[in-house]
Specification:
The chain has 173 residues and is an alpha+beta fold. The protein has six helices and six strands. A six-stranded antiparallel beta sheet has the order 1-2-3-4-6-5.
Amino acid sequence: MARLSIILCLFLAASCGSDSKEITSNYTNYQFDKQVIEKLPVYDSLVQAILENYSSVKKHINEDESYRAYRYFPLSDSTDLFKILPREGAVKINQYFTQLGKNFIYGFDVFKDSTVKIYIRKSSSEKEQVDIGENLSYYPPGINIRRREFPFKDTILNKNWQYWIGFDKRDLF
């Protein structure tokens, strides 16, 4: 039994080291998408449309959940915007989704402090089995942008916007 425990610990230690190397390789080589950066004015308009309707969104932020955000993913079971926002606000937000296109947005979160996280895309590095998630975060005036640490890579685009990428080793199961 003791031998089995030692072998298991060695196996886990070895696999953790290789995970870090694979993530580091992707982290080092992955580039920020210039097209995302060029579309920043559209993302900015989207966020302004979201924040114009913040009072409606705020009602759907559950204080009892640890995440404390309203999450919208139009292709999932998330709450339909037309059920929580005035019609004109929902139409405007959906128009920005269409303008950005599937490869540049698939959802967003709105937090209690009016910070907005835009989910751009998810991809995978099949060779290394690493999942890569690209995001934009909008920070309203008065809220400092927090720099991200490994395994996240970030760049500050302006006083309100941060483009960041997360790298995660895909689980075995």
